[in-house]
Amino acid sequence: MKAALLHEINTPLIIENVEISKPRAREVLVRTVAAGVCHSDLHFLEGTFPYPLPTVLGHEASGIVEAVGEDVHYVKPGDRVVTCLSAFCGHCEHCMTSSPSLCREPELQRPYKGEQRLSYKGKPIMQFLNASSFAEQMLLHEHAVVKIDEGIPFDRAALLSCGVLTGTGAIFNSAKVAPGETVAVIGCGGVGLAAINGAAIAGASRIIAIDRLPAKLELAKKFGATDTILADETLVAQIRDLTNGGVHHAIEAIGLKITSEQAYKMLRSGGTATIVGMIPKGVSVELDGMDIIRERKFQGSAMGSNRFRLDIPNLVNFYQSGKLNLDELISAHVPLSGVNDALEQLKKGEVARTVISFGE
After folding, report:
1. Mean pLDDT of all residues in the chain?
2. Mind telling me the catalytic residues?
3. CA-to-CA distance for 175 and 273, rounded, in angstroms?
4. How far apart are CA 229 and CA 217, in angstroms?
5. Does pTM top 0.70 for this prediction?
6. Is the pLDDT of residue 112 over 70?
7. Do residue 142 and residue 176 come from a single domain?
8. DSSP 307
9. In the chain, how many domains are there?
């Protein structure tokens, strides 16, 4: 099959012929129809987070089941599915305590006597985040897919897999935003826009979008932002002034030290800062002791604290009822050969989401 292979960090992906294994027990072979280009892919391409190379990037996708292995009962060939990198085993402590997005059981990597499920020129390569979706096919654990109906197009459905699930989940599951509360969202990329949309669905009384690009702030209004702020050194003071002392919730959707600290400082007493962005390993965040005394909370959110087989069908319903705006989240469609251009645009902050289309 054709796949976009990353050979070395900070180099363009190369379209190569990659071999993919047949599905074994509990495995599902999916023909990729659409794959979103996510900022997380860019982090790994740039080496911010190390990963064994070569690998096929991509993790936000939708497609059609082509074949299943033994002991697969959830899906069958022909089913339409969305993938999710936060696969769950179903029996570990995290899965049994309603936190399946934290599951890290090694069985989900599906090793067979050291054999990887993808190979290039006869040598095994590491599958990326349980998916490797920048490819014509994906081999997945059955606990990494969720069925969807025909009421949502594949390109929209792919976005639910990571960006939308992460942003809305930060609102619904991690922060648990209540009707009438105030929310500030730092960063209006795909995840931030989804968080803004989620806050609107949750009934937040004021939703403040923050970004350095005016065009993204204009786009944020279409997703439910009631106020917009062009980020500068006075950001925290502006938020406190606008909300009479600070917001109930601050969502950081970039992954930077400075914006994470700003998220905490812009809270009112008792407020919660939820960090969704991927802060690089080794970077420390500093919190003021007086803010802690005022019962301000600082927490992370892994993939929106999702239970994706419950959350994704709910998101589909929100889309079908007109509450979830997926249409304007897509900036462009490109073929697999356009993946490097899509990553470059993402690096420049020019797009919300580009979708790689493989065709149905």
Report:
1. 93
2. 38, 40, 43, 59, 162
3. 8
4. 8
5. yes
6. no
7. no
8. -
9. 2
